[in-house]
């Protein structure tokens, strides 16, 4: 198998991390006039690589389990990871991000699977069934995922796997998507000419109370929304839902449809529970709109 090449080095990906060193004990008296600490800069270079199944598989399985969250035992991620990587090689599309050379584990990746071409693939069919079971009977996503309806549909859909560590710098992400779409566009293979994309991910919901979550909502909007209460009753927070990856906001803004679903095996929450509740997400977007979303995403990162 040919050695994967570095696709591109992105200047925005070279980041600096500040570390604060504790001041020596003898210097404590000087801390009033000085910070008493030195700041050292650590440059981290991120490189883009083609998929390498021999190296990337373990990290891809770990990232798949992370996205599946509570449902990680419902899907065998080993064959699914193999399929994502092999599809990247077959279509010559998709890339990973690494910081320590080709043989290191990827911090993130964006890959794609042709839905129509892999409905019955043993590695993909269980995952496809898992997604279908989260959909209502009438949904734009069902038209593309359900084999009983899709043959009559003119679209050629693909499922995008955007998997990454949560602390991966945001300026890297538009380049991952841009590289993927450019590779698909430049590939003469008709298998690469997708009309629509379904992006799978997860989100979270904040629920609870000001007191329970240790928050103090004193802004004018929250004051206006407060209802008169007696005694020591606690004002509930306004529930909010968010994607785990901030770049997905740009995609959601142009998406045809956004579907969220509860994880099947998530533990039941008590009525008085507070904190973060996770859920799954499926976002349907056309090829043209995804191009525009990536442009907006990249402009915001500059």
Automatic annotation (TrEMBL):
It is found in: Nucleus. GO terms for biological process: protein transport. GO terms for cellular component: nucleus. The keyword Transport applies. InterPro entries: BCP1_family (IPR025602). Keywords: Nucleus, Protein transport, Transport. It holds the Pfam family BCCIP. Residues 1-36, 211-233 are annotated as: Disordered. Belongs to the BCP1 family. Involved in nuclear export, actin cytoskeleton organization and vesicular transport. This is Protein BCP1. It comes from Kwoniella pini CBS 10737.
């Amino acid at each position: 198998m040919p050695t994967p090449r570095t696709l591109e080095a992105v200047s925005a990906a070279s980041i600096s991390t500040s570390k604060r060193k504790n001041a020596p004990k003898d210097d404590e008296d000087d801390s009033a006039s000085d910070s008493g600490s030195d700041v050292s800069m650590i440059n981290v270079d991120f490189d883009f690589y083609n998929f390498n199944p021999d190296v990337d598989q373990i990290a891809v399985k770990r990232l798949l389990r992370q996205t599946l969250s509570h449902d990680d035992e419902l899907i065998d991620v080993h064959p699914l990871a193999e399929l994502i990587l092999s599809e990247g090689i077959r279509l010559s599309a998709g890339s990973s991000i690494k910081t320590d050379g080709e043989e290191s584990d990827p911090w993130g990746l964006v890959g794609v699977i042709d839905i129509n071409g892999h409905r019955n693939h043993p590695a993909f069919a269980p995952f496809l069934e898992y997604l279908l079971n989260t959909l209502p009977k009438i949904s734009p996503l069902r038209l593309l995922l359900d084999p009983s309806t899709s043959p009559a549909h003119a679209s050629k859909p693909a499922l995008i796997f955007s998997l990454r560590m949560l602390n991966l710098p945001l300026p890297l992400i538009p380049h991952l998507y841009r590289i993927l779409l450019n590779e698909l566009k430049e590939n003469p293979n008709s298998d690469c000419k997708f009309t629509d994309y379904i992006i799978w991910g997860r989100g979270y919901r904040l629920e609870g109370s000001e007191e329970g979550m240790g928050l103090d909502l004193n802004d004018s909007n929250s004051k206006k929304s407060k209802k008169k209460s007696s005694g020591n009753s606690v004002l509930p927070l306004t529930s909010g839902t968010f994607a785990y990856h901030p770049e997905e906001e740009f995609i959601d803004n142009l998406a045809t449809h956004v579907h969220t679903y509860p994880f099947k095996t998530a533990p039941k929450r008590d009525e008085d529970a507070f904190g973060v509740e996770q859920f799954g997400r499926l976002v349907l977007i056309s090829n043209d709109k995804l191009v525009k979303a990536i442009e907006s995403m990249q402009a915001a990162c500059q």
